[in-house]
Amino acid sequence: MAKRHSNHGGNLESMFLRLEELVLANSGEDEFEEVFKLLVAKLYAQLTGQAERFTAKGTQRETARQIHALLRDALEKWPGILEEDARFRLVDEHLHVCVEALAMHDVSRDGLDVLDSFFEFMVSRTAKGNKGQYFTPRYVVDFCVRMLKPRSDETVLDPACGSGGFLFHALAYVRQAERLDEAAAARYCSASLWGFDIDPRAIRVAKALMVLAGDGRSQLFRLNSLLRPDMAFLSGQSTSGDFADLTVEHVVAERRPSHEGFDVILTNPPFAGEVMERHILDGYHASRGKQRVERDVLFIERCVDLLRPGGRLAMVLPHNKFASSEFANDRARLLNTCKVLGVVALPRNTFLPHTHQKASILFLQKRASGGDMQPDEDIFLAVSEREGKNTKGKLRRRPGAASNGPQWTWVDHDLEDIERAFSACRAGETISFGAGSAGITAKRISELGPALVLAPERYDMRRSALHRAGDESQHVVLGDIVDIVTRTVSPASKAASERTFIVLDTSDVREGFIVGRKVRVAGTSIGSTKKTFAKGDVLVSRLRPYLRQVGIADHGFVLNANGAELACSTEFFVLRSKSGMDIGFLVPYLLSAPVQEVLAAAQEGGHHPRFDESVLLSLPLPSSLLENQAGCSHAIAIAANRYREAESLVQEAVRKADAIIKPE
């Protein structure tokens, strides 16, 4: 039996879950549309001092009549939030039940920040995740706004505005920083805040959010922001504010004829999806001559195009745009047109529960016409280390923080520290990179290398922590005593068809040992290309180093293979001694906390973080470890033998259990 969700007054998430449940269970109507209409009616009743109209009446028919009237009044006051002919599709009985569930909540009392988070929750469950679009956590939005510090005399744009979070928080920031009264805030909102999105539902939610902020006339429109003026055909505006084939420039020029570019852009464009339309691809430097290109690559170029010279940008992007050699030309073009002010790497849990995608925030300023990149320009780089969310995507509360208010004040993050360091860097102050700030540094463009890597993780000082902490007179690194074996075997090769193999996946190696006995398979059945290894080799998984998948191919394991050849996933680095000496002593070294910290700091990538072999081979080996390598390797060999003995005892016990339990 499905669990019924509790509905607690003051808990907006429980309210939505209960309403969603009631709509789905009782009517089969679109839960987003029906719950959103209920919220609009509820908000109208409370914000106009008519809260008593949104209550369950004596009969279901009377309740329905009252709520239908409220919705009509709301549509008249706030055009564009819903379709002009919007009406409830719930029958009187179901509408009465939903009103009863919603009536106990005072949505205006809960505050704009809580409702902002609620709208994020509502839309992300129904509309966004399957498009690669993930709403930015509101404490991250606040961070972007605080880093760029917009002013009331500046225009702000989000070309992929979703539910309007960046615009709402920009308004809140300016309102507080400049102490704007309601009239001044309304003027700023209607004249200076611009949002565009291709998703009609998101635009309606964004309009509702700005209504809550005290203004119903915000410049929010549905269109494809990637269209440029020379691509599109002019068309009329629909009554819903939908500009099917118009561009951002067309819409803004009609309302601000003197517009010459936006002062501030804050955005998180879709992470996933490729653009394949020829008329769009031919309009961008990044995609000319290509058959397809990732959508966010075009958004980078488009946002720079929409900025005025001197304008500022904060954009959330996947890790590969900052680190992958595939996008080196795009980074070069960006650095030629813009001064990159900083890049801040976000923790991997930031966009959970929707995705593990690793992302960073790009901060830049568009160069004046004719301005050139200078090799000595400093770029602020930081790695955010305090996860604001747990592994299930739930927000972590800062110890001792109040139970309400903006996420920025109570979520357990370190973005405030990074903001202060960035401000100090911009002011020309010397930043201390001592204890507690290992993930913060600054690099000149000339130090970025030929690929112009902008990923902060690449310059994290913890990567070289062992070099700094070790004996300066000791220059032996891992690459001096081992080679990385690269020999592979393919199931399609003739050689493989004549042999049998024991094949290891990354989960088969952990905490120093190869675990479990593996079944021999024919070479044609090994699946994909594998690396080969031999007795005495040390296997280190480059994938997700925090899983501690390090182990040695010990004598007992090789003996149990009974003549089969040994192969493993290509995710392993196979370390082999250059001199033939026993390298078992490397197992505890690679599992030690200092080395694990280096490997964790070195991991890069989107969904599947890895570290590069250069990081591994450059690890310094302490002289004390090298002096005791024989004794340490002998201890590992004894431990491996005992592990195999214990493994054999367990397997013998299992065989006996099988014999007892197996029916005659």
Automatic annotation (TrEMBL):
InterPro entries tied to this protein: DNA_methylase_A-5, DNA_methylase_N6_adenine_CS, Restrct_endonuc_typeI_TRD_sf, SAM-dependent_MTases_sf, Type-I_RE_MTase_Subunit
Parts of the chain that traverse the membrane: none
Alphabetically ordered keywords of this record: DNA-binding, Methyltransferase, Restriction system, Transferase
Annotated CDD domains: AdoMet_MTases
GO biological process terms, semicolon-separated: DNA restriction-modification system; methylation
GO-annotated molecular function: DNA binding; N-methyltransferase activity
DNA methylase adenine-specific domain segment(s): 113-390
Family affiliation: Belongs to the N(4)/N(6)-methyltransferase family.
Protein name: N-6 DNA methylase
Protein species of origin: Noviherbaspirillum galbum
